[in-house]
UniProtKB/TrEMBL annotation:
Keywords: Cytoplasm, Glycolysis, Lyase, Magnesium, Metal-binding, Secreted. Pathway: Carbohydrate degradation; glycolysis; pyruvate from D-glyceraldehyde 3-phosphate: step 4/5. This is Enolase. (2R)-2-phosphoglycerate binds at residues 160, 331, 360-361, 382. Mg(2+) is required for catalysis and for stabilizing the dimer.
């Protein structure tokens, strides 16, 4: 092993995320002086089966930092950053729990990312190239969350995310720039309809007008697409994040109560009225069967599991068996290491489940997931509105990759 890839030191420190909360950044340094960092993002609408985030009582992450500086630093010193599997297995062993509750999923994912980035740097190649090798060919389709509700916004909308999907374009940049036109049109429409400029944004940079009903939000988004001249090229998606409006067998939405079976019709009716290509977490995180019923009804919609699977192969296996979804969210911090994330993606791909590499609602400006999405050749990347630095850093990184390496846009192949 060369000095440029042999770990000399691992240190953690606290930085800020996009909600102004503290999060952990881990920095790895090799004997050859190569060094890079990894950040832990943070969710607000988390699945209950996610890796546990280690947080102090006051919301800080000083205990996580202490663990990195002592336990993790001691265990990984002299390891080769090029041996990601050995690093991640050691992190798993140090923790020893099923949900990373001992040393924290935030400490493990920040370390795992820092090690991978340092490895790529030690070889002097791009992160996405290190992950994907020479076969890397496509840029993913962005899922842009331009209108926010649920736990990410201060309005009364129960659906968490109203998404635009710029599918039929020749390049990632064209797709993204068309999306910004629609995003701006949406702001104009809100001003026109409600006589006031609602400057409030949700956690992921989408507008958050004071609406209550799903159809009002869908009307706005669909009108913005049509008025921008992109009907037939740009589709609609939603992340219902429905565990957050589900209680004791009842979904409460649009001022009414729905049984789980009634919710099947609720979504099917919306998919009849609007060009809904993508629907994430339509049912609560335990209802694998109703996901399957809905997916079998909606042939043209990619029903997707996020809280349902939490990037965990055990739950994805169950979803595959039951034919619950044709898509899955991939959030590395839900599981806690990159090696586990790669295993998860492999299982999904083997079963023709579409991959959506995703940010969290609490992000830093690091663009690592853009490289991850390109490296694993995901179908989609979901990283918020085309506004606000912690979201644009990911989109701008893909623009850079497209420009410098001539990758093709995946859109029309979907
Ligand atoms: C990104 C999401 O939200 P959070 O990070 O709050 O879980 C999501 O639910 O897809
Ligand atoms: Mg989600």
């Amino acid at each position: 092993m060369s000095d440029s890839s042999r770990i000399k030191k691992i240190r953690g420190y606290q930085v800020l995320d996009s909600r102004g909360n503290r999060t952990i950044r881990v920095k790895v340094e090799t004997y050859g002086g190569v060094s890079d960092f990894g950040d832990a993002p943070a969710g607000a609408s988390k699945g209950t089966r996610e890796a546990v985030e280690l947080r102090d009582k006051d919301g800080g992450v000083t205990e996580a930092v202490r663990i990195v500086d002592s336990v993790i630093n001691d265990a990984l010193r002299d390891f080769d950053v090029l041996n990601q599997l050995a690093v991640d297995r050691t992190l798993l062993k140090l923790d020893g729990t099923v949900n990373k509750s001992r040393i924290g999923g935030n400490t493990t994912i920040a370390t795992s990312i820092a090690v991978l980035k340092t490895a790529a740097k030690s070889l002097n190649i791009e992160y996405f190239r290190y992950i994907g090798g020479p076969k890397t060919r496509y840029t993913p389709i962005p899922l842009l969350n331009i209108l926010n509700g649920g736990l990410h916004a201060g309005n009364m909308l129960k659906i968490q995310e109203f998404i635009i999907i710029p599918k039929d374009f020749d390049s990632f940049s064209d797709a993204l720039f068309a999306s910004t036109t629609i995003y701006k049109k949406l702001k104009d429409l809100i001003t026109e309809r409600y006589g006031k400029i609602y400057t409030a944004l949700g956690d992921e940079g989408g507008v958050s007008p004071p609406l209550e009903k799903t159809r009002d939000a869908l009307d706005l988004v669909y009108t913005a697409i049509k008025n921008s001249g992109y009907e037939g090229q740009v589709y609609i998606g939603m992340d219902a994040a429905s565990s957050d409006f589900y209680n004791d067998g009842v979904y409460e939405i649009d001022g009414k109560k729905y049984s789980p079976d009634e919710m099947i019709d609720y979504y099917a009716n919306l998919a009849n009225e609007y060009p809904i290509l993508y629907l994430e977490d339509p049912f609560n995180e335990n209802d694998f069967d109703r996901f399957a019923t809905l997916q079998s009804k909606l042939k043209n919609t990619i029903v997707t599991g996020d809280d349902l699977y939490t990037t965990n192969v055990e739950y994805l296996k169950k979803g595959i068996e039951k034919k619950s979804t044709t898509g899955t969210i991939v959030k590395p911090n839900q599981i806690g290491t990159l090696s586990e994330t790669f295993d998860y993606i492999e299982l999904a791909k083997k079963n023709s489940i579409k991959i959506i590499v995703s940010h969290r609602s609490g992000e830093t400006e690091d663009h690592f997931i853009a490289d991850l999405a390109v490296g694993v050749q995901s179908d989609f990347i979901k990283t918020g509105a085309p506004a606000r630095g912690e979201r644009t850093s990911k989109y701008n990184r893909i623009i850079e990759i497209e420009r410098d390496y001539g990758l093709e846009y995946y859109g029309k192949r979907l």
